[in-house]
Amino acid sequence: MTxxxxxxxxxxxxxxxxxxxxxxxxxxxxIFQHLLFFEHFPKAIAKFTTPENWANDFDIxxxxxxxxxxxxxxxxxxxxxxxxxxxxxxxxxxxxxxxxLAHNYFSDRAIEFTMSDGRTDMISELEDMKEQLxxxxxxxxxxxxxxxxxxxxxxxxxxxIQADMEAEYVRRKSEV
Length: 176
Fold this sequence. Notes:
Layout: H1 5-46, H2 51-66, H3 70-80, H4 85-103, H5 105-108, H6 110-113, H7 116-150, H8 155-175
Helix pairs in contact: 1-2, 1-3, 1-4, 1-7, 3-4, 4-7
């Protein structure tokens, strides 16, 4: 099925919106990983008893932190340290973008969305927001990755984890 130009452009707006929201979630994961390696792991290592307790403590920590809003996660990040004024500016901007996308973007752009030029502008705007979110995640990951490596989470280990997750997905899909 071939889409008419208007439908194709509308689809592209939605696709760019989805990609920007995806990067909001990636950034939230980057914040969680930072908290994990700068706060949770140092404490968890100190009180390690068994692998089962380790996994249980991790699950509790993950559930608690990932149920927080992005704003609360950013405040937690400030408490943990490794926070710079540049990172503060990037995270503040990312939070503003995230909240606008989640709560008001399409209502604020209702008129633009009805016009071809407006949709073109929205696509550019969404692309710019996605890039800002990516840069913020990269900035935070640049602080977190060296610490992750010190804990043994190397590229090889990450590749193995990804391969295991993909194999698990394929296994579950074949059971359906």
